[in-house]
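Retry 2 of 3 after timeout on previous attempt. Resubmitting structure tokens to design endpoint.
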């Protein structure tokens, strides 16, 4: 474990960037996640941020489809952030999904997000792979970007009774590879899990 650098920044740096302390950070995933144009997607981000959220985020399969190419989405989401910030006086953010087919393309997308001034990018670490995740984590650390991790595909690995590995192992491996925060599930809702198990994930990640 000594050879791994771990999360790019961590919660304290995130709070410092946002200038928000003493309370949980509140965000949401934009829905419908597929089918919106980049302009309409950006408008939804603006309305959520203007309404009081700290963050909005891409979902795991919001990537670069014909109806919403990644570069267009990045630009409209950045506009939404700046407009909401100007009207609320608060620092806002949007988790831009930088997941791509190659490490080079992923770094290119993260670099574009940084040029736009967006504070955070996102990676689907199981579909992207640990090597790609570590590469992106190093870039984020060196360039002041926060890194959010989506756990898409985890259920194929950790919810099988006869094979696979526990999410505790996947989460710990992710922490070593690098990620400022990761989905841990919740006790209610779509990502429902057992209370004690979910609290165990949260404790492990801290």
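Retry 2 succeeded. Sequence:
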């Amino acid at each position: 474990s000594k050879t791994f650098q771990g999360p790019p920044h961590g919660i304290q740096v995130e709070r410092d960037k946002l200038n928000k302390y003493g309370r949980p950070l509140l965000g949401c995933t934009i829905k419908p996640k597929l089918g919106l144009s980049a302009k309409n997607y950006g408008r939804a981000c603006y309305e959520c941020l203007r309404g009081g959220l700290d963050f909005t985020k891409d979902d795991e399969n919001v990537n670069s489809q014909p109806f919403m190419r990644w570069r267009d989405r990045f630009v409209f989401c950045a506009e939404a952030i700046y407009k909401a910030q100007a009207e609320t006086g608060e620092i806002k953010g949007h988790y831009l999904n930088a997941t791509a087919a190659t490490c080079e393309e992923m770094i290119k997308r993260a670099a574009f997000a940084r040029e736009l001034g967006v504070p955070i990018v996102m990676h689907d670490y199981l579909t992207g792979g640990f090597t790609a995740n570590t590469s992106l984590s190093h870039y984020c650390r060196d360039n002041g970007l926060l890194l959010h991790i989506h756990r898409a595909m985890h259920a194929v690995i950790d919810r099988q009774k006869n094979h696979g590995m526990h999410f505790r192992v996947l989460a710990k491996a992710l922490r070593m590879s690098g990620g400022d925060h990761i989905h841990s599930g919740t006790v209610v809702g779509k990502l429902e899990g057992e209370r004690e198990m979910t609290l165990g994930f949260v404790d492990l990640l801290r």
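Attempt log closed. The mean pLDDT is 90.
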